[in-house]
Specification:
binds arginine
């Protein structure tokens, strides 16, 4: 906060030797508040100014004209430290308070820019497993964060709705069930047929020929085959939509792999014309030896196209349809090679968006008992994880506050919120070991902890009634604890913008916990609802700003903010 203003006075003090921009990018927020609110490390200018850092700090300090929100500036070695006037800073809260949740509180840096975000991208005919949790909630958070900053975010669910597995499933349904039966069943039933198929096909290799033939019939537009396919898709989407609703996830497009059936040929044409396609055992590939990568396989010997072929067509389609500024793929790091190959092939094709493609990779999720969602391990369904978290949350809520009305609804908010929050807590790339007890700990770095803090603010605001910022006695929120809260509040924009820039929602998650911790420290040491009018108004204002900011952080992360808990 105030970086711009400070940078300008520094530039003026340097008499043109430093630009405001140079000064601004050098400014740091000191770790300890006794070092001030902002620090200028002058060694960064030693080379350009040809002076020792302490001398630079001293000279700048002597020439500074301090704005009124700065109480003093002091040199410490090669540093020039700025100490703000706490009351002047606290007055900034009126700006936060005036802002309503609807509009952004941040600079709309993304105006006019479209960001495509490919996330969740589930596979048809498979239940939603925990391996798709991260892509869904990280993608969903980025979608909201970008929109919040004024970008036009386009959420794309690149459904896995193509491939021989659908032929296998048709064979399984025909052998052990029927179209009528499965229409009334759920995705778990479909999955059990699929599992049975794999078991029995080991002894009956001829099933695979039948499956291939059925898939070919889907491809050729055969009516019966496509009716099966349509039912598979319907069953899966019904289940997936339920989960999206719980996770507050939405998409602007569900154009999945099958959508690109008729859009690959023009791309293959470009590849041919540019001499990029080579034959290899009857298949068509793009060789990438020069970049130390295996060839990218695009057409099999039998003429079938692949995942990568569809992604090339999708990239062209997205560029043409959305004219994106960036195209992000929120996909597990297991697909690193796929995306490296894809982006390289697009570059070789002179694709207009090639330099704007980004793989936003993330790590694996496993449960404490070692279960995870790889092919070998036991599969963990996401709906089960959510249900179990909600069930445990309900027990905790019942213990803590047995008279609470709407316990079920609150347990749903807390349980689902806890799961989402934990998937957004670390840097994306870290593998996560999921523990119910840890994510539901009310005293941890968790959703329930922050939700509880929010409910605490809401309760104080209900008790305190309406407040008037004009009557605030600013000295009532200038203690160390209160000032920490104020400073943290002013750091909100920075957290959101960093999250967008690094494609790391964890900056918002961690910000929320930080703000909650600071507020709680203040809350323990200070009464909010007191008789003194000036104190009351100042503290209610502070509490209201915390509540509004936490509420916004939650909405960016996709978590509910219950008013009571
Ligand atoms: N369906 C794929 C999977 O579950 C993810 C698709 C990611 N998006 C893409 N455009 N390749 O692994």
């Amino acid at each position: 906060m105030f970086e711009k203003e400070i940078a300008e006075v520094v530039a003026a003090a340097s008499a043109g030797a430093l630009s405001a921009q140079e000064a601004e990018s050098a400014l740091e927020i000191p770790k300890e508040s006794k070092m001030g609110d902002l620090a200028l490390p002058c060694f960064k200018f030693a080379r350009t100014l040809r002076k020792a850092p302490p001398a630079i700090a001293a000279e700048l300090s002597a020439a500074l004209e301090l704005p009124d929100f700065v109480a003093k500036a002091e040199t410490a070695g090669g540093y020039l430290n700025f100490f703000f006037d706490r009351e002047a800073v606290a007055r900034k809260l009126t700006e936060i308070d005036a802002w309503s949740g609807e509009s952004t509180r941040c600079e709309r840096e993304g105006e006019g820019k479209t960001v495509c975000i490919d996330y969740s991208s589930v596979n048809i005919a498979k239940p939603f497993h925990i391996g798709h949790l991260s892509t869904t909630v990280i993608g969903g958070a980025l979608y909201r964060i970008f929109n919040y900053l004024g970008y036009n975010a386009v959420g794309i669910n690149h459904l896995g709705d193509w491939g021989t597995q659908f032929g296998k499933l048709i064979v399984a349904v025909k052998k052990w069930s029927s179209l009528d039966e499965i229409a009334g069943k759920d995705e778990y039933f479909l999955n059990s047929l699929y599992v049975r198929y794999h078991k029995e096909a080991e002894e009956h290799p001829e099933y695979d020929d039948e499956a291939r033939a059925w898939f070919k019939r889907i491809e050729d537009g055969d009516k019966e085959a496509n009716e099966y396919f349509r039912v598979f898709k319907e069953i899966t989407m019904r289940a997936v939509e339920k989960i999206y609703k719980r996770l507050k996830i939405r998409f602007d497009s569900y154009a999945g792999e099958s959508f690109y059936n008729d859009k690959m040929e023009p791309c293959l044409d470009i590849l041919r014309k540019k001499g990029l396609l080579t034959e290899s055992d009857g298949a068509q590939v793009v060789r990438l030896d020069e970049w130390d990568m295996p060839p990218c396989l695009l057409v099999k010997a039998d003429g079938a196209t692949l995942y990568a072929t569809r992604d090339i067509a999708a990239a062209y389609y997205r560029k043409q349809t959305y004219d994106f500024y960036k195209c992000l793929y929120v996909v597990a790091y297991q697909q690193n090679l796929h995306f490296k190959q894809l982006f390289k092939v697009l570059e070789l094709m002179d694709f207009a968006g090639a330099k704007d493609m980004e793989h936003v990779a993330f790590g694996m999720v496993s449960l404490e008992d070692g279960a995870m969602s790889t092919r070998g391990g036991r599969v963990v369904w996401l709906a089960e994880v959510l249900d179990k978290a909600v069930e445990k949350a309900l027990k905790i809520v019942e213990e803590k506050n047995p008279d609470l009305p709407d316990k079920e609804a609150i347990a749903e908010s807390v349980g689902v919120g806890a799961v989402v929050f934990s998937a957004l807590w670390n840097n994306r790339i870290k593998d996560i070991v999921f523990s119910f007890d840890k994510v539901l700990n009310f005293d941890g770095e968790t959703a329930p902890y922050v939700q509880y803090t929010y409910a605490r603010c809401a309760s104080a605001l209900r008790k305190g009634g309406a407040y008037d910022a004009k009557k605030a006695d600013w000295s009532a929120i200038s203690s160390e604890e209160a000032y920490d809260v104020v400073r943290c509040l002013l750091g909100f924009e920075d957290a959101v913008r960093t999250a967008a820039r690094l494609r790391e929602p964890c900056f918002v998650t961690r910000y929320a916990v930080d703000l909650a911790e600071k507020f709680n420290r203040f809350y323990i040491g200070h009464r909010i609802v007191v008789d003194d009018e000036g104190v009351l108004n100042a503290r209610l204002l502070l509490t209201s700003c915390v509540a509004k900011t936490l509420h916004t952080a939650f909405s960016l992360l996709g978590i509910d903010a219950p008013e009571t808990m």
